[in-house]
Amino acid sequence: MDKRPCPICTRQNEPQETHCWFCHAELPPVSTDQPQSSDWLRGLRQDQDATSDNNPILPAESTESNETDKPDEFVPDWLSRIRSKEAVERSEKKAQEDKYWAEKKSHSGVPDWLQSLNEDTAEIKTNNKNDSAPPDRNKVPSASPIEEPSTTSVSGDDWLESLKSWQSADETNKLIQSENPEITESPAEIEFSPQPDSQVSPEILPEPEFDLRKIFSPLVEEPVIELEKPAEPQEVVLPEGFQPFDITFDETEIQETYSQPEQVDSDLSSTVDSQPQVELEIESAPVLPNKNVDNQFSIEDLAISLEPIKEYSSAPPLESAQLIFPDDQINVAQPLDQSGLAFLNDQIDVTQPQTDNQVEPEEIIENVSADEVSAEIPINPFKGDDLLLESFALDDLPEWLTDVKPIEKPVKEKPRSVTPEVDDESPRPEKGNLPVWLAALRPVEAVEMAAMPDEKAQEGETPDGDQPAKVMSGISAATFIGKPSDLGGGLKVSNRQKTNAALLSEIAANAETVEESEKNSAVGITNTLWRSLLALVFVVVALLGGTIFNGYGLQPALFPGEVVHTFDRINSIAEEKTVLIAGDFEAGFAGEIRLTSQALIEHIMRRNLNIALMSINPVDSALLADQIIRGLTFVPTYQAVGKVVDLGYFPGGAIAVQDLGNSFANTVRLTADLVATSSVDSLMNIQNMADFGAIIVITDKAETARVWIEQLQPTLNGTPLLMVTSAQASPLIQPYYQSGQVSGIVSGMAGGLVYERIMGSAGEAGRNHSSLQLLSILMAALVLGGGFISLVKPESTGGKRQ
Amino acid sequence: MIPTGLDLVWVIVSFILTVLVFSYFLGDNAVYRFVMALFIGVSAGYFAVVLIFQVILPHLVVPLISGNRLVLVPLVLSGLLMFKLSPRFSRMGNIPMAYLVGVGAAIAVGGAVMGTLFGQLKGAWSAFLPSSGEPPFLAYLEGGFLLIGTLASLAYFHFNAKKGSATSGKRTVLVAIFAWIGKIFISITLGVVFASVLTAAATALIERTDFILQTIQLLAGK
Questions:
Q1: pTM of the complete model
Q2: Which residues of chain B does A648 touch, with a Cβ-Cβ cutoff of 8 Å?
Q3: Do the chains contact at B108 and A714, CB–CB below 8 Å?
Q4: Half-sphere exposure (CA, 13 Å, Cβ side) for B160?
Q5: Which of A273, A440, A642, B162 could cross-link with A95 by S-S, CB 3.0 to 4.6 Å?
Q6: How far is Cα B92 from Cα A27, in angstroms, rounded to an integer?
Q7: How crowded is residue A740: how many other Cβ atoms within 10 Å of its Cβ?
Q8: Residue A221: how many CB atoms within 10 A of its CB?
Q9: Which helix (H) or strand (E) holds A699?
Q10: Of B122, B189, B199, the CB nearest to A727
């Protein structure tokens, strides 16, 4: 029978094997009859192979897998991930299957195939039937496709005797046994599970307990099991005869296992499957470039190569399936080396490249995330320990393996560090040369993400070379999550769209420029023109009222009561009394205040009353003094030097006013010339505010007037409180006059004009009265005109729309 | 009186500055900004001189020299107020600020109650009292009009409503009527205030134009 090449590692395998002995890859089914092997084990395998061929599932699955995996087929990312996960699941199933068969074999201490060969199968089955009934959960439905045929009855007296002759111990195997204490473990620890074969119908009877196809083809049977139990994905219902993981190998079984290379490997895989990392290493064999593997193994190499296997078996996590190497087993290994090394060498001899069943490793890495790669990338099992590499002579190593440095322990801990090495001379993926237009369209974040792993690689996180680092960079880029810095980089814009966009942007730019410039210029010119025009009109009207139209103004026929009362109060003040004039207005209203209060001040001067000037605003003292000076022009007989006292600036606002109401003598101790108020003749007899003949407050704001009224009026005890205010404060002070809190008000230039008329003098207010009337008419016209336009055309004035 | 000598110089300077301020009619310009900066600077300088010579010296330094230790209290408070200039120690200035704000608030509230509230109540009542020679009917009419206007204006700012009523959120009929009347009074009042403001501005313009005209006449020798 011709040897079957592995589609993955291209090594030659025995024709009856379903999986590669080296890489565990699934071998394609053999349709033609294969020649008989002269080896006794091959004959046995042939028989078992014939038995396993009765199962129609395996060829079908293999054929299907071959059909789907074609060479040079483009495998998308999702498919590669699915395949990787499927491989992992299959490996797990394989481990369960191995444990199942290990349990089966440990049931009686003697494999069933051996029992059948001893022609005592029927009797043993009867005994097993009476042992114990299997639990219900292990029952396999009758419709289960896992139908294991009955064991084949093969007469094996000859090979049994030859098998017994292999029971002699070998020194090499003894050495291995001495290094692994687990090997000498007592067989009493091995648990036996009952074999309920008799309760199963012939259709659902399991396969021969030592069916190699069953052992090495769990990947094929797994989907069938999943189809059986769709409702309970978590709990795997094992068929009869299956046992949980808590089993150990039988000593004799391991003997048999070790006597056959395939079984050793299968047990090893079942043992290693309990450890994920080891599992990865076992499955990494297919991805190794193995073109130039030198297959000249020596017996020492093989012996040393088994050491890590024993180490794995002795590891603490491997409780489910401990690998035990008893003395008998080691004895069996001796003839295996004799007869099987040639077989192994033949298997390792690789002459064919990788076939379609395996996806390119770089392709896998590029299409999956880093985590998936770390969990699914097949890893070279020989890189797991230095001893493995040291056992191979450098001359025997293939070219691709000579570049591999001894695996460092820290590197082994990191999943990325065990990325398969690639020969420098081997073809590498050519660096992409994108056209200019495509490079320009590439998103910026793609370039940035690609640069990130390169930096890490430079830092030593990926010491396996440039190529793996570049490959991993793609993985990191795929898993990088961030805000795209240029969302429009990958947009596909046609020429027509570009043309339309350019046209639209040009139109918008022109529109904005023209509109803004025109709007700004138009608004600026319009505002300036309107402001200049109105100012010019107002100035012209004011000048005309003071010149041409002077005297045409309407003279007030009726005098307001508050002004008359003010005049009366001033006239009623005794001559020895002092009038306090308190200025509390801003300098900007000095002109209006002067037109308003000038007649009143002249009236006081005409009465030759003492005047005390006080300012709450620092500039008011000077402005009031200026008005006194102006009044002297009309009242030259007034002795201002002795009659007028400047008390200066009095800070404090409302607090100062309230303090004044409490005690004037204690509050105002000095004049502006730093003279004591008690030494001034006009202030000598004044202790409180009520001692003044009148208090005249000159202010431009209603709030200031209200403070004076509120704080000072209750303390005056009948002393008149007069207000000379700006026109804007008059309406709000009028209620205080109505209530009697304020004795009189002279408000604005109109009040000053009335006061002048009462006094019979011609002052500045009378001269400018015409101007005020003209401007009042003009302002009223503008207000009415603006209100009418706003009423007729609201949008023109920017008013709110109803 | 015709100014002569230094007064004439200041009159000319005032005339020029007034004309420069009027340049604002043509829009904001450097000349206008210069005049405004000059005005602010002169005012600040004048304020400083006034404060030093009319406040600090007579009310702080002189009493301190004369042995009045009571002025140490405002001196310390003023010194603490200076810490407001430093962000690090500005909390030290909170003491005099608290004193000023507290005293100012107390005075304002007391003055409002005693001066405005009681004073206006008295005034509203006295409006019904006829003055000498005045017919009582007119006094009642005037007083009633004033009372209605006051109540209506207060009703306009009455925003309360009955709790849980179906017309929650709406004024009662009586309050709504008074509020509508009060809106009229308030509108008239605000219109008068607006007119008064315009009158004040027009008066300032008239005063300046009269100054310009007088100066021109002075310079022209008329």
A1: 0.52
A2: 50, 54
A3: no
A4: 5
A5: A273
A6: 90
A7: 12
A8: 21
A9: strand A694-699
A10: B199
